[in-house]
Amino acid sequence: MQVMKSVEFRREREATWAELEAMIQFAGAKGLRALGADRLARLPHLYRATLSSLSVARSISLDRALVDYLESLVGRAYFVVYGTRQHVRRQLADFFAWKLPSTVRKAKWHILVAVVISLAGFVAAYSLTSHDADYYYSFMGDSAQGRTPASTTIELREGLYHQEGVSSFLTTFAASLFDHNSRVAILAFALGFIAGLPTLVLLFYNGLTLGAFVALYTSRGLGVDIWGWLLPHGVSELSAIMIAGAGGLMLGHALVFSGAQPRLDALRERGRPAAILVIAAVLMLFCAGMIEGIFRQAVTDIHIRYAVAGSTGAFWIWYFGFCGRSRGLG
Amino acid sequence: MAKQAHSPLSPAGLQAARAALTREIITPEGVPLNFVLAGAGDRAAAFMIDMVIQFVTVLVLALLLALSGTSNAVIQPIVIIFSFLILNFYFAFFEIRWQGQTPGKRKIGIRVIDSRGGQLETSAVLARNLVRELEVWIPLRFVLANRLMWPDAPVWALVLGGAWTFVFLFMPLFNKDKLRVGDLVGGTRVVVVPKTLLLGDLVHEAAISQQSKAQPTPSYTFTDEQLGIYGIYELQVLEGVLRQDQDTLGYLENTATVSEKIRARISYPARVVDSARFLKDFYVAQRAHLEQKVLFGQRKQDKFSKK
After folding, report:
1. C-alpha pair distances (Å), A139 with each of A126, A128, A149, A211, A231
2. Which spans in chain B are helix H?
3. Taking a contact as any Cβ pair under 8 Å apart, which residues of chain A between 255 and 294 contact chain B?
């Protein structure tokens, strides 16, 4: 009997498939690293060979079991070959030295919108509260924590220069950073999916509370002191909220004004850089929490407070403005 | 394009049912690969497993700290920081390390892939998981603490609010690609990890058994005319029949019925004594015939096709 082409084909290539299958089994159980350099180098080769087997089998073989097998084998090999990259450390370095700052640079217009909306909230609340201190309650709600227009100027001043033990560092750090601000940042991003509107509201509201807060202290002649208290961590914290908000606005932008692309493609294209913006924001909030936990407790000298604020500001401007810029050209 | 109605058991109907859950992606090499989308139930189960792991991890940490005699003032912030990191980065961490799988997904056998077939990027994994804040944590907080947010809310407002917050959680149930919001934002899909099992080649097996029984030629031979009736679909159904376990109940009756059907259809002149033997020989001959045609560019899909 004449040997069928498909039978011959299978006999010739079966060993390659078995080798690939064994390798994938091994990598799935013990990780890619455990394969070792030699076998790892063979993996893409085997994958391509099997992929070409699949193409051939689809066109010449009518053996369903064989085509199904090759299809599933190539599928699993595809996961391994095109899964996320493995060099986590190198990838991280690359991410922070280039990807993160350049993504933030590309989002400059969205960040600008976030800043403008927040400033609008700030100015509105500031002018209203300076005019009539009762507005303070409407803007701050229950979060005033005993710092209200009913407090005396001395009490307010006390609050700004109050010194606590270092033991409370962790508590302040955790509360200020992770329970509130990061949530706001991630929320500002996630809410962007609802056409970006809730993000705008959130940014505006954030501006309102800040405006009311500053207006209260300024009306008591504590203007310089309140900024000295706010800015050391606020430079990082407020920028972080702007950047995360910009991420949310990007999602909303992609959905509402998708341009020539289908909406889902636009969303997909901008969703990834937007997520990177949130990572940048969480990172900055981490720094803000450290500064708040340490400096607010330990440093009461106003000059040092301003110096810290200035240097963190300069650092972020350098990092987001200039870090990794040369690579963008190459 | 108008939808065609197919009988669920016809070749086209079976193909349509399979296609509803299968998505084709083009690998960077340009070869189309088919993946089966993970069902909502599988994904929910994987999510539950992951949630239990997260919850237990935080609990164990808190207990260890408490047992080690650390003061409450220190335990509380550490637990807060730790649970923040776990809740927001558990999924991203594992999906980056394990190439699209978390412990729950691995257990269930599903996996995240790029929806266009490219490399699964780190930023895609981050994007799809940061959106969980909107999908899971806001609805959950609303359910657990709605009275805190809005102390004297009427019941209807709470029900409506709850329904609205859960819209995003249940999104995978309402679109044909089973995408959750995170998949839309990250450009990803969750698919079933295929099982691989290479079955023997029936033609090869037939050849071997012929050699061992010292029968140089097939017992049954067919003319080109007889082989020109059925198409690829029928060949593969027959393959399914032949691959059945011979010990299963009714195997003999099945083969007898099928071989009688085929014998009548192709008007095979002689009587069939060994029906299993007849089917194997027919399969080998039919496949050789159809593959020969395929090589010349004629794919006869099923018995209804003209060529």
Report:
1. 10, 10, 12, 9, 21
2. 11-21, 40-67, 72-97, 103-108, 122-130, 132, 138-149, 155-166, 181-186, 202-212, 224-227, 232-242, 251-265, 275-295
3. 264, 267-269, 271-276, 278-279, 282
Nearest-Cα residue of chain A relative to residue B293: A60
The DSSP element (H or E) to which B216 belongs, if any, is none
Domain ranges of chain A: 5-86, 90-329
For residue B36, the cross-strand partners are B22
Position B3 scores a pLDDT of: 46
Whether residue A330 is predicted with pLDDT greater than 50 in this model: the reply is no
DSSP character string of B15-39: HHHHHHHEEEEE-TTS-EEEEEBPP
Contact (CB<8Å) B194/A174: no
Indicate whether A113 pLDDT > 90: yes
CA distance B302 to B307: 9
Residues of B in Cβ contact (< 8 Å) with A171: 73, 76-77
CB pairs A-B closer than 8 Å: 204
Integer Cα distance of B247 and B50 in angstroms? 41
Cβ(B303)–Cβ(A13) under 8 Å?
A: no
Cβ of A60 within 8 Å of Cβ of B236? The answer is no
Between chains, do A186 and B119 touch, taking CB under 8 Å as contact? no
A-contacting residues in B 256-285 (Cβ below 8 Å): none
* Segments of chain B scoring below 50 in pLDDT: 1-4
pLDDT at A279: 85
Note whether A78 contacts B115, CB cutoff 8 Å.
Answer: no
B253 touches chain A (CB under 8 A): no
User: Is the alpha carbon torsion for B276, B278, B280, B282 positive or negative?
Assistant: negative
Report the C-alpha gap between B66 and B70 in whole angstroms.
6
* DSSP H/E element including A253: helix A223-256
Q: For the whole model, what pTM was predicted?
A: 0.76
**What distance in Å separates the CA atoms of residue B11 and residue B8, rounded to the nearest whole number?**
8
Sign of the dihedral through C-alpha A37, A40, A46, A48:
negative
Burial class of residue B291, CB neighbours in 10 A (0-12, 13-18, 19+): buried
